[in-house]
Amino acid sequence: MVAASPPPLRAAVVGTGAIVTGSHLPALRAHPGQVELVAAADVDEERLDTFRKEAGESVAGYTDLAAMLEEARPDLVLIGSPPAFHAEQTIAALRSGASVLCEKPLCLSLAEYDAIAAAERDGGPYASVVFQHRYGSGAVHARQLLESGRLGAPLVAHCQTTWYRDTAYYSVPWRGKWSTEGGGPTMGHGIHQMDLLLHLLGDWTEVRAMAGRLVHDVQSEDVSTALVRFASGALATVVNSVLSPDEVSRIRVDCADATVELTHLYGHSNEDWVYTPAPHSTGRAHSWQAPGPDLPSSHAAQLTGFLEALRAGVRPPGGGKEARRTLEFVAALYKAAFTGRPVRAGEIGPGDPYYAAMHGDHPDWAPPQAGLPHQATAKEHR
């Protein structure tokens, strides 16, 4: 006798703009029978109605997050609201018993991250952040090669997110402000590639950095650079920019036996990963290319592992210590840039101004009377 399939998990979305409509909704549709979208919340009723026409009229609409959580009782909540509301909404969902998959950044500070972790419970619910670049088949294969030592010891790395954003981009009221975005391209753009770098190379131990406001009239930076030392001894450079007309996202790792390089913009497939052998390793290059089906990096790829973990009753990928490590790295980069001294892993804790806010109350960067807004459900972001 064949066992009956478990009922689909009940999902809800918070925010119904571009990132939810263009990425989360297709990801949910890619998992028929496993998950069912039952509710959506947004303070913009017109946009909510437009989303429900796209998602299906059976999806209940709410303008109040608390009411949605109480009435729809979702098993998981996907959050695509502006960053300032992520922590508040994530904690509310966790307390209702729902696990969370939230757009980056999961929150605006290490203090908020630890408050989210405190709202989790052993056995779930759990909170994860969308770091979809980890989950393409090319990234999975590269990490396996690096961890196995088949490329030799990692020695030198480069992580680049050089994008372009014009003045109109920053006319959106919440962008460019610490209290609503959490930072500039370091926090809002480059965090994806930096997370992938840490995912590939493991724990970092020290950061030295610089940041600047070179073009845009914003509170946060529009460019940052960093030097990073890893626990393995490898050294890396990091560049985050919204000033670069020739846009590219790139990671390069030079190992003892080969260079592995990923070049893309907003997503990658197997062909975007290139392996170049050292002169003594030319006969091994064919064995490094990713085998099997090509799974591009995407929200759908991450959701696959997320749903599998929920079914198994274990922590989904994208949360816990690894997600905190990435956020701590961002905080350390800001602290190193603003103080002009190296920052070591583990040094930013309660009592450190960079634990409470990425600007660390630095007089040249922190705006006067900076405070976080609170709202039950906010509009979507991109």
Question: What labels describe this entry?
Answer:
NAD(P)-bd_dom_sf, 382 residues, disordered C terminus, Gfo/Idh/MocA family oxidoreductase, Gfo/Idh/MocA-like_OxRdtase_N, Gfo/Idh/MocA_Oxidoreductase, 12 helices, Dihydrodipicolinate Reductase, domain 2, eight-stranded mixed beta sheet, 32% helix, alpha/beta, Rossmann fold
Written overview of the protein:
It is a single chain. The chain has 382 residues and is of the alpha/beta class. The chain folds into 2 domains: 9-133 and 311-315, NAD(P)-binding Rossmann-like Domain (Rossmann fold, 3-Layer(aba) Sandwich), CATH 3.40.50; 136-297 and 323-356, 2-Layer Sandwich (Dihydrodipicolinate Reductase, domain 2), CATH 3.30.360.10. The protein is built from 12 helices and 14 strands. The strands form 2 sheets. It has an 8-stranded mixed β-sheet. Strands 3-2-1-4-5-6 form a 6-stranded parallel β-sheet, sandwiched between helices. Helix 2 (45-55) links the parallel strand 2 and strand 3. Helix 1 packs across helix 10, helix 3 (65-72) runs parallel beside helix 4 and helix 4 (86-96) runs parallel beside helix 5. The termini are far apart. Residues 371-382 have low confidence and may be disordered.
